[in-house]
Amino acid sequence: MTSAPELSIVVPVYNEEDNLPLLWPELREVMAGTGLGYEVVFVDDGSQDRSAEIVREFREEDPRVRLVRLKANAGETAATDAGLKTARGRWVVVMDADLQNDPHDIPAMLGHLEQWDAVTGWRVNRGAGDSLVRRLSSRIANRVRNALSDETIQDSGCTFRAFRRECLADLVLYKGFHRFIPTLLKMRGFRVLEIPVNHRPRRFGQSKYGIGNRAFRAFYDLLVVRWMKDRLLRYEVAEDLAGEEP
């Protein structure tokens, strides 16, 4: 059995056949400059195009490529969860396959993991990458999420993130909860840092998530997260006087 890599890059994929041939060479170029041993786990979320076949071709040329293929489309949270569960690295990065996340941000994100448990991206300049409607809906969603969840995350919709492996060990996700991973980690006492990341224009295809499934469904999920935070057990043991060993 080959030794575990230092870094796992998890990439949920859904109908990204045009983007994958551009993403993989860019990832290789960036990672070559880090000197890290790594794997890239492409999680095909029931794509209806050639996405899985393209990843298999990558694998034939480079064993650092892995393919996890779901039987049917299960959503971004499920694909993310499947990737996190199979990742072997002591550091784990999650990024989109649509080329809007910039792989060149990965080294800086990993650098912060020396002092932090998790790093989440903040798309400071979204003007070039998204439409006006998408930017406004995201801004409103972030404000509502922060108000209801008592958070200060500037861009909770950004799923470009880096983690220490240990903070993911007991992470339990439900449908739609990929948006709230930073909050879920904070609830368990982990240190989460938000940093600016580049956000690039979409080159091929279209967003899989519109106003309906980004706003309304996320709002229901947010109410659940708020309930979880309110009901979270908070206590400190003052004394634990053990009896004599038998």
Helix coverage percent of residues?
A: 25-40%
CATH uppermost class of the domain at 7-125 and 156-206: Alpha Beta
Helix run count: 7
How is the largest sheet built, in terms of strand order? 3-2-1-4-6-5-7
CATH topology of the domain at 7-125 and 156-206: Spore Coat Polysaccharide Biosynthesis Protein SpsA, Chain A
How do the SSEs run, as a string of H and E? EHEHEHEHEHEHEH
- Taken from the alpha-carbon principal axes, the silhouette is globular
Write a structural description.
The chain contains seven helices and seven strands, in the order E-H-E-H-E-H-E-H-E-H-E-H-E-H. It has a domain at 7-125 and 156-206: Spore Coat Polysaccharide Biosynthesis Protein SpsA, Chain A (Alpha-Beta Complex), CATH 3.90.550.10. The chain has helices spanning 20-32, 51-61, 76-86, 106-112, 132-149, 181-187, 211-231, and strands at 7-13, 38-44, 65-69, 91-94, 118-122, 161-164, 192-196. Strands 3-2-1-4-6-5-7 form a seven-stranded mixed β-sheet, sandwiched between helices. The chain is globular. The N and C termini lie far apart (43 Å). Strand 1, helix 1 (20-32) and strand 2 (38-44) form a beta-alpha-beta unit.
